[in-house]
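S1.2 Input.
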Amino acid sequence: MTKPRLYSGMQPSADSLQIGNYIGALMQWRDLQEAYDAFFSVVDLHALTQPNDPAELREKTRRTAAQYIAAGIEPSKSTLYVQSHVPAHAELAWVLSTLTGFGEAGRMTQFKDKSQRYGQDATSVGLFTYPVLMAADILLYQTDIVPVGDDQKQHVELTRDLAERFNGRYGTTFRVPMPVIQQDTARIYDLQNPTAKMSKSAESDAGVLWLLDDPAKSAKKVMRAVTDSEGSVRYDRENKPGVSNLLVIYAALTGRQIPSIEDEYAGRGYGDFKKGLADVVVNEFEPVRTRALELLDDPAELDRVLASNAARAEAVARTTLGDVYDRIGLLRRA
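S1.3 Output.
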């Protein structure tokens, strides 16, 4: 029986992924690859919407791929590749852009937010068409489901609209994908500012738990995380955002329910609770860090794995793109 198809990816925008990426994406992907024909991409073309140092972008791309593998995404089980290694992504994006309304693209929330923040002159056409490239990423592989954060749901809805528009105009060509949204309880906040989502662009590195941090540094960040003066370990997102954030991390990494953790640390104070969480974080991250660094020590082998997977992805992508070109009337090369 053929497995349903899954597609997802992340940008190579930092030297290390952070715990929000791990809990919100990698842990989920690791489980989903068992039930789905999974395609996971390092979306380096999307990263071009921000200025990059070329050498750093190449290094970040390798580091992101290494962390995918180290976190349990198996290249022999899933198709794990670099987006730019499959030219069909950019080719299909152009076709889909001719079906996308200017107003439709301009209504995308992320584009509106970023263009307002940076100003019109600093906003590229690439940022404007980012959701169209994302639609091409998904539709190339005849994807059934797309696991994304709730901030990307609008982009998947655009993908569905474009698939249905193309199918209606040229005949059924694309599978219409469904977004699978992570639950709000998996949202991870900054350790120093627990009302803000944890982000690579945080004001202070002290608030971010990086997968490739030295274990002692990760433990220190947990021990110094902002809590409150009450002293009781209980979940209350509105009144106790710091403690609630730590409880969410603890529950996500251990698979335990938050009430069980609250019971364990009842009356014991924040010191014991943070020490327990620090141990959980270190035990989870240390083998991932060790494996990722091993992979990065042999870049030729890592590149070989990525090339092999890209060939697998390209075989699927070229079939879809060929069907698209035939349906819209492009002349095949003799």
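S1.4 Remarks. The two ends are 36 Å apart (CA to CA).
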